[in-house]
Each structure stands twice: as structure tokens, then as C-alpha cells.
Write a structure and sequence with these properties.
The complex is a heterodimer of chains A (156) and B (193). Chain A is of the alpha/beta class and 156 residues long. Chain A contains 5 helices and 10 strands; from the N terminus they run H-H-E-E-E-E-E-H-E-E-H-E-H-E-E. The chains are: A alpha/beta (156), B alpha/beta (193). At the A-B interface, helix 2, strand 1, strand 3, strand 4 and strand 8 of A face helix 1, strand 1, strand 2 and helix 3 of B.
Chain lengths: 156, 193
């Protein structure tokens, strides 16, 4: 009986929090390594299509992005619901693409320019009309290496 | 007993680390960017388009996608699940069938003189085709060629295509080139011709 009474009498020592920073740092490093910085704030809704034959975009610095999709809810009053193009942080039209590609090219070192890739992030419900216009503009701007951004689908 | 050195307070270290952690959680994204890699053809001025070289009918694999996202392959409606096998059959032409593409002999490293197909895949879509469908079709066509390359690599080198040396890969690429041509889309219904 005395065994039980003894336990209740003593006060519980406080839990040591000395190892808490170590745990949190471990989490921190995990996230730092496994994630990438956001490039831009999305102004359009993009639900990427699925594909199996994917290749990874190895060097982020060589990639320029073109986003296409419906404007987000808060922009729909001004820009409507039809799919729009977004370059950097701005809505753009098809005519702006050549300038954008030129600007992106100017920003890279000369030896990197032939390796540049344009990544098209297009919502899967977009009509091909707008995508074709973009492709024509990219051809005119001689940005021929493109990547249709898509999610991984499990092989059937 | 020697005097105890006072302990450095470590309780606030956790707070600092948490702050950093939350910052990284908010500003970064997890997804690795990946996608279907393609090369666009060089831009040609529409005015100076020269007569496109005549390609024999049997050498073209026509894939049409209409505005209702239906597929018409070589004149018949098919489901997208069948597309990969059809494309593989077309590019490989294992039985040298009359209606499938011709082959021409070509000198290729590692293989010697090999019969290389002259087949070209032609993909045409409508302006109202869904992008998701278009990409699925592209994916199947690329997958068909990738599978053929992989099969050849396993047969000849006993290794999957990805593990081959650069020049071995290039030899296989010569045998199964990724010839997918995309014509300008038609505004009207594409199924007609």
C-alpha cells in the first residue's frame, strides 16, 4: 500500500524542452530541402492535366512560365471568367508574349539562352484556341523548347 | 564540487525555429515541376510557305481531335485507351504490312544497317478542343514511342532505355524518331476531312 501513496506525494518534474529546438530544426531543414520558392502569386485558377511521360524541369533558373486559366474569384469582376494569360504577376494578352520571352532571354546569361525552356501551366479545361495562339507566338519568338506542365498519373 | 556553469536558456530557441519553419511553409511549394516536354517547329512565314513535301498516304498516322473531344484515328473513331497500341503498331510495323509505313535501310551505330520507319504522326485538333484532352493524346503518342524505344533497348542491350549510354540512346532515337507533326488547327469542325 505504501508503494502507491509514495507516488502521489512527489511532485512531477517539468518536461524538458531542451530537445524541442532540435526537432523543429529537423522539420525546418526537411521543408527547406524538399520545397521550392513560389515564383509568382497566381491570379488564375490552374488545375493541371495528368500525364505519364513526364520529364522534370531540372534547372529552375532556365525556366520561364506562362500561366493560363480562369481568373480567380476576386478578379472575375474586372476580367471576366474567360481563360486569361498571366505573365509574371500581371494579366497579359497574346501579343505580350513575344516581349515577355525577349525580356526573359535578356535576363539570362548568353551561354544559358539556348537551353531555356518555357513551361506552359494551363488549366485542363481551357480551350485549345488560346493555347494555339500562345504556341504560334512562341514559335515567332523562337522559344521552341516547351514543357506542358502536368501532374503525374499512375500507369494504368 | 566545482561551481556549476549557468545553463544557457534554450527555451526561446524553439520559438525562433518555429518562426523560420512557418516562414518556409508559407513561402514555398512542395510540387516539383514536371511536364511533357515537346519542341515546337521553327516559325515559317505563312506567305513563303513552299510546297510541303508530299508524304505517302501510308506513311502518315492521322489523329484528329474534334470539339467534342472525340478521336478520329486513320478514319475511325477510337477510344483514347486504344491510341497507344495503334500508334505503336504504326511506328513499328512488325509485319511490314502494306497499309503501314514504309521502311528504308539506314546505317546506325550498334545496330548496323537497320530498317527505319518513314512514318510520321500527324496530330490536328479543333480550336474548341479541351486542353486536357489534347495533352492526353500527346501523352499517349509520346508514350507509344517511348515504349518502342524501351522495348528495343531491352531486346538489344538488355537494359531499359533510361540506363543506356548517351550514344546508345541516340542510336535508338534514330531508329524510332519522335516525329509528331502538329498542323494548324481548323476553326471549323475538323472531322470532315
Amino acid at each position: 500500500m505504501s508503494k502507491f501513496r509514495k507516488k502521489g506525494g512527489k511532485e512531477l518534474p517539468p518536461i524538458s524542452t531542451a530537445s524541442l529546438p532540435d526537432i523543429v530544426f529537423m522539420l525546418l531543414f526537411f521543408f527547406m530541402v524538399s520545397t521550392t520558392m513560389r515564383e509568382v502569386t497566381y491570379k488564375v485558377q490552374i488545375h493541371l492535366p495528368e500525364a505519364t511521360e513526364l520529364s522534370k524541369l531540372e534547372k529552375k533558373s532556365l525556366v520561364s512560365y506562362i500561366y493560363v486559366g480562369e481568373p480567380l474569384r476576386q478578379y472575375q469582376k474586372t476580367f471576366g471568367v474567360a481563360p486569361r494569360i498571366q505573365l509574371n504577376d500581371e494579366f497579359a494578352t497574346v501579343d505580350d508574349i513575344q516581349d515577355y520571352v525577349t525580356a526573359e532571354r535578356e535576363a539570362r546569361a548568353e551561354e544559358e539562352r539556348p537551353l531555356m525552356i518555357t513551361s506552359l501551366k494551363v488549366d485542363e479545361n481551357t480551350k485549345m484556341g488560346i493555347v494555339n495562339d500562345i504556341k504560334q507566338e512562341l514559335r515567332k519568338a523562337a522559344a521552341l523548347h516547351i514543357n506542358y506542365s502536368s501532374r503525374k498519373r499512375a500507369e494504368r | 564540487m566545482a561551481k556549476k556553469t549557468p545553463e544557457v536558456p534554450a527555451s526561446s530557441l524553439a520559438d525562433i525555429a518555429f518562426m523560420l519553419l512557418i516562414f518556409f511553409l508559407v513561402t514555398t511549394t512542395m510540387d516539383v515541376d514536371s511536364g511533357l516536354e515537346r519542341r515546337l517547329p521553327q516559325w515559317v512565314d505563312p506567305d513563303q510557305i513552299d510546297e510541303t513535301p508530299q508524304i505517302n498516304e501510308r506513311n502518315i498516322f492521322v489523329v484528329l481531335v474534334n470539339r467534342n473531344n472525340d478521336l478520329l484515328v486513320e478514319g475511325e473513331y477510337i477510344n483514347i485507351d486504344e491510341l497507344r497500341d495503334r500508334a505503336k503498331e504504326f511506328m513499328a510495323n512488325p509485319t511490314n504490312a502494306e497499309n503501314l509505313p514504309e521502311k528504308e535501310p539506314k546505317e546506325i551505330a550498334y545496330f548496323g544497317e537497320t530498317m527505319v520507319t518513314k512514318g510520321v504522326i500527324s496530330l490536328r485538333n479543333d480550336l474548341d478542343t479541351r486542353y486536357g484532352t489534347y495533352l492526353a493524346v500527346q501523352n499517349e503518342l509520346v508514350a507509344a514511342i517511348n515504349e518502342l524505344r524501351d522495348e528495343l533497348a531491352r531486346e538489344h542491350f538488355g537494359k531499359p532505355y533510361d540506363e543506356l549510354e548517351e550514344d546508345q540512346q541516340s542510336a535508338i532515337r534514330d531508329i524510332y524518331p519522335q516525329k509528331i507533326s502538329e498542323a494548324e488547327p481548323k476553326g471549323k469542325n475538323v472531322g470532315g476531312n
